[in-house]
Each structure stands twice: as C-alpha cells, then as structure tokens.
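WARN no homologs supplied; continuing
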Amino acid sequence: MPDSRTTAATGRPAAGRPAAAGSPATARPAAALPGRPCSVAAGLALVGDKWSLLIVRELIFNNHRFDQLARNTGAPRDRLAARLGALTEAGVIERVPYNEHPPRFEYHLTESGRDLIPVIGALRTWGDKWAVDQPPVVIRHTCGHPLDAVPICRTCGEELKPRTLTVEVNAPGWDLHGPVPTQ
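OK structure emitted
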C-alpha cells in the first residue's frame, strides 16, 4: 500500500513531493517491461521520446518557462504540456511557482533530471559527428577548449573503452544472448 508520500493510483510521489533518497520516483522491477530486463528499456520508458529529451536540453540551457520550452523545442503546446506533466510525475523535473496571480510555474531539473546531463552530452557528441554537417552548438570547458567529454571510471580514472568492460547479467533466466532455456 502506498505511503503518504505517494499517490494511490500510481504509487509514485505526490505532486511536488520528492521520492525518498535512493528510491527513484518511478522505479519498478526491470522484469516488468517486455523483453530483456534492462535499465536502458526502463529509462527509455520514462524519457525516451524526442520531446522529453529536448525539454531536458532546454532546462540544462536555463530555459525554464513554458513559452521558452515551446519555442526552443518546437513541440506542439499540447504535447509539451503532456510531456512536462509526465516528466514531473516521473520525478525528472519539478514545477516551481514564480507568480501567484495568475498562477505561473517554471520547470527545473531534479537530481534525477540533472543525472541526464551526461546522456544529453553523449547524444550531442554523437549528433555532432554523425547527424549534422557542422555542430550548431559548441560547449567549452572553463579551460577554453571545446568540450570533448569521455567517460571514465570514478574509481581508477581510466577512460572507458569496450575492451576494458565486462558485463554481469543479474536478471534471473537471462544471459547476454537472451533468455536461458528452462529445463
């Protein structure tokens, strides 16, 4: 049964209330999705559509108001409103009032949303290389050089490369190749 911090219908945190630390607002068993139990699939179920990631991009660029988000994403207003509601319910963004009469809100990234910054950065890097003829936005580090971010291991500081990684499958009944036949 949901506690007082969640809505009865969804089991998710009530509007404006963050999930308890370490318990994502929309966390569910990975096996609840069709196909391979996978955090990628679960993440895409929350933020995997075009408009959601463009909203996150705009919030990273400090555009917080509905009109700014509509203009800069190109999203139809009804779709934008729906995505903002879904991202708020998922705990990725929060609505922050900036005017009482009439009531007006800005949207800000939560901790969950800020954790998408490297995802947006990786997608931008890939898009700069493979999807456009010239990068339309250049992000510079404080050293003045264009950002060329690479993932590193937090523990040893080594750059991550496929040959340095191993994968453990922790989903019962699955291995790297797919479902394991039962006997």
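The helical segments are 39-47, 50-60, 66-73, 77-89, 111-114, 117-130.
OK
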